[in-house]
Amino acid sequence: MSGQTSLHIDGRLVRVKAGTSVAAALRVADSMGVARTSISGQPRAPFCGMGVCQECRVRVDGRRMLACQTVCAEGMQVETTA
Ligand code: FES
Predict the structure, then answer these.
(1) Residues with Cβ within 6 A of ligand 1?
(2) How far is the CA of 2 from the centre of ligand 1 (A)?
(3) Element (H, E) at 8
(4) CATH fold label, 4-79
(5) Ligand 1 center from residue 46 Cα (angstroms)
(6) Where is the secretion signal located (predicted)?
(7) For ligand 1, what atom is nearest to the CA of residue 47?
(8) In a 10 Å sphere around its CB, with 0-12 CB exposed, 13-18 middle and 19+ buried, how is residue 12 labelled?
(9) pLDDT per residue as tens digits for the range 31-60
């Protein structure tokens, strides 16, 4: 569909508006916006939204990225547990 982007978040197909950040897509995916878990298993989520706090780290197509600084791309594979 025009104006939309499809990606996978932890294997789940998610469609978002073109230009949406991965951090926003995490919310759309109904994952409560959780980007990763701490060493003790606590959920970590985007906090600053501007690339400073590092709380939104995810793996995108095998590379560690900041979800708040990454725009969704067609076919992107996002892993929050890696
Ligand atoms: S939300 Fe803080 S670096 Fe992404």
Answers:
(1) 46-49, 51-56, 66, 68
(2) 29
(3) strand 4-9
(4) Ubiquitin-like (UB roll) (3.10.20)
(5) 5
(6) none
(7) 1
(8) exposed
(9) 667 777 788 888 888 999 999 999 999 999
CB contact set of 36 (below 8 Å; sequence gap of 6+): 44, 57, 58, 80, 81
- The set of long-range contacts for 37-40, using a CB threshold of 8 Å and a minimum separation of 24, is 37/81
Q: pTM score, two decimals?
A: 0.88
The closest-lying atom of ligand 1 relative to the alpha carbon of residue 56 is: 4
Quote the ligand 1 centre to 74 CA distance (angstroms).
Answer: 22
